[in-house]
Amino acid sequence: MFASCDKNRVFDEYKELDGSWSKNDTLHFEFEQNDTINPYNLFLNIRNNNEYPFNNLFVIVSLKNPENEVKIDTLEYQMANADGSLMGTGFSDVKESKLWYQENFVFKKLGKYQVDIVHALRESREINGLEKVNGVTEVGFRIEKTK
């Protein structure tokens, strides 16, 4: 019944973390794409809790097509309101944020795609990234049909 209510979903998968996201944790998603005509919306889904210490989130996302061509993006997302409360949806202290990755994206090749996501957070005035970020419980990747 749930799937029938979500008819735009093409791919939706989560990777569970142990409450923190290590800089060595590359979250890997694979999917088959058999449509090179229609556009799709691509999202990152982040579930975090009140232990998340930042107002924003920096991630590096790489998308590899079936011919091993790779597109890499460094993205920043707002994760908290000005008062420090987490953005996103949810009734408990865990909030889910559905974050735009690509809008109206057309897959140019048929076959298997890979998406890898790593966090790129660092403290202000620091060169090296944080070893781990607390409060991130799950990271997901989602593909939807455009409306």
Q: Order of strands in the sheet with the most strands?
A: 1-10-4-7
- Roughly what fraction of the amino acids lie in strands? over 45%
Give the topology string: H per helix, E per strand. Answer: HEEEEEEEEEE
Number of strands: 10
Determine the fraction of residues in helical runs and give it as a percent range. under 10%
- Label the CATH architecture: Sandwich
Task: Give the CA-based shape.
Answer: globular
What is the oligomer described by this structure?
single chain
Distance between the termini: 21 Å
The count of domains is: 1
Largest sheet: 4 strands, antiparallel
Counting DSSP H or I runs of 4 or more residues, the number of helices is 1
* Chain-averaged pLDDT: 89
Cα-atom radius of gyration: 16 Å
Low-pLDDT regions: none
CATH topology: Jelly Rolls
Keywords: Lipoprotein
Protein name: Gliding motility lipoprotein GldH
Task: Describe the structure in your own words.
This is Gliding motility lipoprotein GldH. It comes from Flavobacterium okayamense. The model has no long low-confidence stretch (mean pLDDT 89). This protein has 147 residues and is mainly β. A hairpin with a 5-residue loop joins strand 5 and strand 6. The chain has one domain: Jelly Rolls (Sandwich), CATH 2.60.120. The two termini are 21 Å apart. A four-stranded antiparallel beta sheet has the order 1-10-4-7, with no helix packed on it. The protein contains one helix and ten strands; from the N terminus they run αββββββββββ. 3% of the residues lie in helices and 53% in strands. The longest helix has 4 residues.
